[in-house]
Amino acid sequence: MQEVESPLFSPVDPEPPKRRDMCDDCGRPRCVCLCQSFPENLVPIMTNIIILQHPNEENRTLATVPLLQKCIPTEKCHVLRGRRFGGKYEVLEKAITAPDSVVLFPSRTAVDLCRLPQRPICTDGAALIVIDGTWSQARGLFTHNEFLHRLQQVKLSDTATSEYVIRTQPTEASLSTLESIAYTLRWLEASPQLFDILVQPMRLLCHYQLEHGAVVHHSKEYKNETTLVWLLLLVSKTKMCLTLTCSLFVTIKYLSGTLPPTLEPVLLVAWSLPGTEQRTSG
Ligand SMILES: [Zn+2]
Question: How many domains does the chain have?
């Protein structure tokens, strides 16, 4: 009888497992290397950027800040990691005292980006300060770093839906850190082509991820609202009732400027379902 070898004492392969073939420049596996998407020369922006990064963001594989760092000069982008930043970093202290510095954060008192003068933020160490993390982490960092409250807060409006589809955003208007910075720089540097140049590596990253089995993540808002529409469909006793509830919902969303364009097909399907007609006649 043949002796069965215990897995515990099975022979060990003397060769260590081969590491995936990685690109030295972008740090990604060679088969999904992003280098072709980076600009040939670093984009010579004038604006100083300081990114206050939540510690959990550092180790995230698909983060967007490293992609930005590959596109602009190192001295123009400082990434500071932590939860409390006051009094720790010279570059930040200088920015806090410079009158032109702004914080990109949609607080209640934030002004629209288009209200800022269209010129780079760089005078006397001034900087565009950006918070990097999930939305709840970003809110936490803003709340706990009171020096940010004293600076001008800026928000983005009328932006396209995020193309960073491999991560769930809280709302249809939410953008990745890279996209937010690219929008802001396009305005401040008065350079229409800047957005596409900076966002290109992120587009390629998403393309590769989707090609390798990732699925498109709709925003939490989209998911909630789609569920709500289906729920309305189910509970509506008559077509008239369905029409009224859907119309009311769409009107409210339209007036508040938050109707996700992707919701339209769902409403059309809901409307054309035969079950609705049957209920009408019943
Ligand atoms: Zn590469």
Answer: 2
